[in-house]
Amino acid sequence: MTSMIRKSVLGVAGLAFAGGVFAGPIAAHADTGPVTGKPVAVQADKPDSGKLIPHGVQGKQSHISLNDEQTGNAKAIIAATKKAGLPERAAVISIATSLQESKLENLGHLGDRNDHDSLGLFQQRPSSGWGTPEQITDPEYSTTAFLKGLKQVDGWQDMPLTEAAQTVQVSAYPDAYAQWEKQAAHIVAQHWNS
C-alpha cells in the first residue's frame, strides 16, 4: 500500500497517535475510542478460553475486520510469543495492545498525525530505546521487545489485560486496551496451533 493510500486509510479510520511506549519508553496516546460496529460473540475454545480470558472482558468490546497484512502481523505476534516460550495469554495481551496501538498495522512515520517518533505494531519509539526504526518495524523484534517489558511486570499473568498492557505501554488512556480482549482471544484461538 502506498504511503498516500495508507495515510488516507488511517485518516478515515480516525487514528491519531500521541506517544510511544514503556519498558524503556514512556508514552501518551490519543484515545481513538471504541471502534463502532457490531460486537462479535467469540467462543475461544482452542486453546482453553480460561487461559485466554481468565478475568472475563472489561467494558464494551470493539472489533475490526482484518486484511491479510493484519492477519499476518497477528500470526507474527503469536510466533514471537511461542518463540519466547510464553503462554497464549501473553499473545492475547500482545495482540490486544497492537490492536489498540496500530490496528495490527506495521506503521511507519505518520507525519503530522504521529506524535514523537512512534512506529510499528506497538507504536514503540526509537528515541526511547526500543530499537532502531528498522528493528521496531520488524514484527518479531517489536513483539519480543513488548514481551520483554511484559515479563518484567510482576504478576502479569494474573492481571486484567488492560492493567498488564498499560504497565508496559504507559498510555494516557490506560483502559483502552480492554476493548480488544475478545478479538485478541479469538485471533489467538484461531491461529495458535496453525
- Envelope shape: globular
Helix content: 40-55%
Q: How would you state the average pLDDT, rounded?
A: 78
Uncertain regions spanning at least 5 consecutive residues: 1-46
Kindly provide the radius of gyration, computed on alpha-carbon positions and rounded to a whole number of angstroms.
15 Å
Task: Describe the fold and architecture.
By secondary structure, the protein is mainly α. The chain has a domain at 66-194. Helices cover 43% and strands 0% of the residues. The protein contains eight helices and no strands. The chain is globular. The model is unreliable at 1-46 (pLDDT under 50).
In short:
This protein is mostly helical and 194 residues long. 43% of the residues lie in helices and 0% in strands. It has helices spanning 3-13, 49-52, 68-83, 88-102, 133-136, 139-151, 161-169, 181-191.
Secondary-structure map:
Blueprint: H1 3-13, H2 49-52, H3 68-83, H4 88-102, H5 133-136, H6 139-151, H7 161-169, H8 181-191
Helix pairs in contact: 3-4, 3-6, 4-7, 4-8
Features of this protein?
globular, Secreted protein, 194 residues, mainly alpha, signal, 0% strand, 8 helices, TAT_signal
